[in-house]
Specification:
The complex is a heterodimer of chains A (216) and B (326). With 216 residues, chain A is α+β, with helices and mostly antiparallel strands. Chain A has 6 helices and 5 strands. In chain B, the strands form 3 sheets. Chain B has a 5-stranded antiparallel β-sheet. Chain B is built from 12 helices and 12 strands. Among the domains of chain B are: 47 residues, Uridine Diphospho-n-acetylenolpyruvylglucosamine Reductase, domain 2; 100 residues, 2-Layer Sandwich (Enolase-like, domain 1). The N and C termini of chain B lie far apart (55 Å). In chain B, 27% of the residues lie in helices and 20% in strands. Classes of the chains: A alpha+beta (216), B alpha+beta (326).
Chain lengths: 216, 326
Amino acid sequence: MDPDTSVPLTRRSVLETGTAVTVTALTGLPQIAPGAEPTNDEAPPAPVAVELRVNGKVRTLHLDPRTTLLDALREHLALTGSKKGCDHGQCGACTVLLDDRRINSCLTLAVMHDGQSITTIEGLSNGAALHPMQAAFVEHDGFQCGYCTSGQICSAVGMLQESRVGMPSYVTPNLADAHDALTEAEIRERMSGNICRCAAYPNIVAAIRQVAELPT
Amino acid sequence: MKAFTYEHPATLAQAAAASHRPGAKFIAGGTNLLDLMKLQVETPTHLIDINRLSLDRIEETANGGLRIGTLVRNSDLAADLRVRRKYGVLSRALLAGASAQLRNKATTGGNLLQRTRCIYFYDVTKPCNKRVPGSGCAAIAGFNRGLAVLGGSDQCIATHPSDMAVAMRALDAQVETVNAAGETRSIPIADLHRLPGNTPHLETTLRAGEIITSVILPPPPPGIQFYRKVRDRASYAFALVSVAAIVETTGGRIRAARLAFGGLAPKPWRVPRAEETLAGAPARADSFDTAATEVLDGARGYGGNDFKIPLTRRTLHAVLAEVTRT
């Protein structure tokens, strides 16, 4: 007897019905609110001129004001070293230095930085000579897949500068002291805005410790 | 992101005047606004970039306090030695918030005006009375682990996400504003944020066209300043419960206490009766417990956030034990 035809409720119909029920259950009934879907029927806004000094070179762009600094770097200047991870300021893969301070380039607009200096991972090395932080990441294997690495390195460079000028962190024991030691706990807290999905954290910390001239 | 036009006025008067344009919004650090614009939770049609206004200084006031310009970055405010030495609770609260990259961008005024991180406010496919008035609240019967147990309403139980504002609430800060006519106003921080009631979309008492120019810290009150933040990760997470405490103790007795709480309510939460109870009380567990009961007066859990009620009690105990330790 063929089990697929002997009963009205076939295996296939059970599977298909089951699948359909599951999809409904997963998607839930609340439908997308009217007007919530992005629409593309509006005319693009007039481009705005912006002059950025990127890795020491002045670059003039004409951008839709919606362009984030990250998209300006990647899509308009072909500097694809800065990565788009979450695009919401949560992962740190897009970290660049803006006037030597680390920021999330996905959460700012390029037009807001007319006349300012941006350093990306491409601007850290001196010709073929790697920046000490880049060399330390290579030496300590501070990555696996590498996607977060350019953000980690830019962030670490900014972090060491913050520490050198005496900026405290949440784990700094005594805030009244102008300068506190950069311990491993300090490095981990100060780097918490850079997520590594491969969890290469021990090696990232080791690389940063080496550049900070702490015993590893 | 919806299309918008962009301007960067050079003067405060121009910025305030531009804000009367329909659909206009100010942008400073942009770390919250742009996040929300990408999700179309916020859809301004005109952005007024105020970063070029000279509002980025920290100055001493005549009576020994500090005036913090609205554009002072969170990282610079936390690192200022005057803040670290006289207002440690504020420095510590700032450093407990966000990541270093975000603090380098986020501003004082923007931190006060940031929106809730309620997941239903962020999800434009779900009802939210704050985002779309009258559409309902998906949080009350939904995933409400991070949401309010105090000060909410049957329309909204969103929490205010700031750490900085909690410390400023304990310090009795004043928020200074100006409007397009040049009129200035000083708002006690206690009165800046509204409770949701039937109008959860109205979050502050700022008027149309009014722009925050600075935050004034009065001279620091005597006592030990302390900030404790309890969260799901050791770093870079919003508070489940936080406590900003300023407590003066002599001879085993509390002379005066100020306690402000984050993570519990739609605004930084302070309960004068709890502070009055502690004033003059022995620094002992029974006093702390009475104060905790008063802080939690009217507290209500919604299932997922029930744990915040005992967590608040325990956190307050731990904080008061720490700051009264001799």
